[in-house]
């Protein structure tokens, strides 16, 4: 589950953060709140969140000290600091502590979303990739069927930066012969087939999740969301966002028809 923990005794600020997130592409996040460091630490120890947002001036401890303890528990936890204080020393202390974001109150919607984009997308992509990889069968090359083995390898490791030479090496063929044989057996070039696989994987995530397009693009192996959108539209005729919207619309119509027939 993707979670965001907010530790801040400023109730109005917590409400603002929740409202901004609920109206954004990160509405799928489960948000947990605490007004004190003590309760925040209890929540933190119960479950590792996808990110932590803390105010520097907590009533029972210093926010930076709290963040340092959180990093001792989870060294790769993204931490975003919030404060009303415009002091360079605080920014420097946050950076030195290993925090990834620094936001001034009152919070700006654009700055908050941009910060979440920067710190959350890599975390979510890594988490999804680990889950999907755990369900895959281990790869073993069949030298009697090198192209079939290459296809299996691409189906498993599509989210990684695959190259023709790299996959050819896995099935013990020269890049030129592998390229020729791949086109003969599949009717597609290596790049065309890899794009096809990645788009198919992306379709599943678009249908079954509300994850941001950027996260899905990254998880499907595309360098950026712009290239993903271009490739997706080239192969399907519509954009990823339109595909998701169309799928959910058809699903809702199907449920309506089913309910009407009962």
Automatic annotation (TrEMBL):
Give every Response regulatory domain span. Answer: 3-120
SMART domains linked: HTH_ARAC, REC
Q: Which residues cross the membrane?
A: none
Residues annotated as domain HTH araC/xylS-type: 148-246
Q: Which SUPFAM superfamilies does its entry note?
A: CheY-like (SSF52172), Homeodomain-like (SSF46689)
Q: Give the record's keywords alphabetically.
A: DNA-binding, Phosphoprotein, Transcription, Transcription regulation
Asked if the record carries the keyword DNA-binding, the reply is yes
4-aspartylphosphate-modified residues are: 55
Which one GO biological process term can you cite for this protein? phosphorelay signal transduction system
Extract one GO molecular function annotation from the record: sequence-specific DNA binding
Domain of life of the source: Bacteria
Name of the featured protein: AraC family transcriptional regulator
Q: Which organism is it from?
A: Fictibacillus enclensis
